[in-house]
Amino acid sequence: LLTAISVERCLGVLWPFWCRCHRPKLLSAVTCSLLWALACVLAGLVYYVCDLGHSDHCWMVLGTLCFLNFFFFIPFMVLSNVILFIKLRRSSWQHHQVRLYTVIFLTVFFFLLFGIPLSVQIFLNYFIYINFVFEICLLLASVNSSMNPIIYVLVGSYRKCRFRGSVKVALQRVFEDR
């Protein structure tokens, strides 16, 4: 989903008129639905093959997941965020959406910092298993999962002397579209 959000925002910045006039209205909903379906199929496949004792093909399933992550999703996410960052640094007309782009950048940054080690560790478990490292990677993944609401509230209340108002107001400030 982070990849889809990053690519969609990048396309919106690179070709704003196409996105406003010609982009199908249901594109985001269809894309998210397909990504959730893919995630459910892959999670079910991992559970069936790796956790239920069909370990002969577990290596192939985890290898496919790692391939998708490291050679498809992550490069598109990083590339679209780099393009988005460069484009927004050069243009001054998009200042009203700085909060939204800040949220996207921070979410992707913390995902790369805290979420990727677990994927790497799961892949490396088939070569060498170190319980302590796996637990640290699980802790980092948990930090990554709990980081998004904190990012939303902090970015939503940015430039205030202190946090005032409710979390709902901060979230509305982050995601308001002018």
Automatic annotation (TrEMBL):
Signal peptide: none
InterPro entries with a match to the protein in the record: GPCR_Rhodpsn, GPCR_Rhodpsn_7TM, MRGPCRFAMILY
Sample GO molecular function, one term: G protein-coupled receptor activity
Subcellular location: Membrane
Bilayer topology: Multi-pass membrane protein
Keywords annotated in UniProt: G-protein coupled receptor, Membrane, Receptor, Transducer, Transmembrane, Transmembrane helix
PROSITE patterns recorded: G_PROTEIN_RECEP_F1_2
Chief localisation class: membrane
Transmembrane annotation, as ranges: 26-49, 61-86, 98-120, 126-155
Domain of life: Eukaryota
Domain named G-protein coupled receptors family 1 profile: residues: 1-152
A GO-annotated cellular component: plasma membrane
Protein name listed in UniProt: Proto-oncogene Mas
Organism taxonomic ancestry: Eukaryota, Metazoa, Chordata, Craniata, Vertebrata
